[in-house]
From TrEMBL:
Name used for this protein in its record: SAF domain-containing protein
Tagged with keyword Nucleotidyltransferase: no
Residues spanning the signal sequence: 1-30
Domain SAF, residue spans: 38-95
Species in which this protein is naturally found: Nonomuraea rosea
Keywords from the named record: Signal
Amino acid sequence: MIQAWIQRYGRRRRLIAAALAAIAVMSAFVATRPTPASTVLVAARDLSPGPLRPDDLHPTPLNHPPAGAVRTAAAGRVLTAPMRKGEPLTDVRLLDSFRLPPGLVATPVRIADAAAAALIAPGATISVLAAWDGGQPARAIAEGVRVITIPPPAEHTSAHGSLVVLATTTSQAAELAAAQAGGHLSITISPNLK
């Protein structure tokens, strides 16, 4: 039977081999074909957290954009973390896309020492201390809170310190507001242990 098969199809084996080779080449071409480029917004220069201006980002075609890449206008939206020139903007970098866990609110506070605020970045875990005039010792009023964003220093730094937005509970937010009204806020920085 094998002998009969060889006699019958042996003459066609070159044709069969050529057809299989063609199928292999086509399969390799389809597998390695580049995906069509998708236009996303990328940083036009190194960017600091804060409101985005129209010239901060420009559309660029990318073959493999990251998940959540922003493709439409982002001017006026708030960037929560620094970006390097050429880096694609993703939805998790924007404050309006940032999802706080249930029970937490975004709380802006002014840290008295702007230089201390420059030591932290979005995602850092800090504790906020309050000190009042009159010689009372400082006390912690919000411990282990996460930094959401730090608006650009040029726009929000004053003689009264630097603005920082924190994820806090509503009771921590109330204590922070009361402490800001009559005292000065400072921070301690916790190591981010994973």
